[in-house]
Design goal:
Shape: globular
Number of helices: 0
Order of helices and strands: EEEEEEEEEEE
Distance between the termini: 40 Å
Helix content: under 10%
C-alpha cells in the first residue's frame, strides 16, 4: 500500500500563488506516475498535471499550462504543484494520486488509472 498526504492549500487572492505538496509513504517503489487532480463543487474530478516518477516527464491540462508546474523530489518521496497566476476558477479540492504504471501520454488524465489517492486539500481563490 501507498499513503499520500497533501498539504499547502489555502485562501489566496486572484493573481496569487500557492505550492501544494504531496508526500508518499509505504511501498513507494511501486509508484511510476504521480498526478494532481481537482474537484470543484458540483463537478467531476478533473486532471490537472502529472509527472513520471523516474524521468520527470510532465503533462498539463490546457487551462493550467504556463501557470502551474509539477515537480518531484525522489529523495523525499514528494511531488509539488506550484500554482501561479491563480484564478477564481482554480478553486477546488486538489487531490494527489499515484499510479503503479508508467503513463507518458493522455492515459494519465483518467481518474480510474490511478491506484492511490490522498485526502485532498482545499484551494480557494478570491476575486
Amino acid at each position: 500500500q501507498v499513503q499520500l498526504v497533501e498539504s499547502g492549500g489555502g485562501l489566496v487572492q486572484a493573481g496569487g500563488s500557492l505550492r501544494l505538496s504531496c508526500t508518499a509513504s509505504g511501498r513507494t517503489f511501486s509508484i511510476y506516475t504521480m498526478g494532481w487532480f481537482r474537484q470543484a463543487p458540483g463537478k467531476e474530478r478533473e486532471f490537472v498535471a502529472r509527472i513520471t516518477w523516474s524521468g520527470g516527464n510532465t503533462y498539463y491540462e490546457d487551462s493550467v499550462k504556463g501557470r502551474f508546474t509539477i515537480s518531484r523530489d525522489n529523495a523525499l518521496n514528494t511531488v509539488y504543484l506550484q500554482m501561479n497566476s491563480l484564478k477564481p476558477e482554480d478553486t477546488a479540492v486538489y487531490y494527489c494520486a499515484a499510479a503503479k504504471r508508467y503513463y507518458s501520454g493522455t492515459e494519465s488524465n483518467t481518474v480510474d488509472n490511478y491506484d492511490y489517492w490522498g485526502q485532498g486539500t482545499q484551494v480557494t481563490i478570491s476575486s
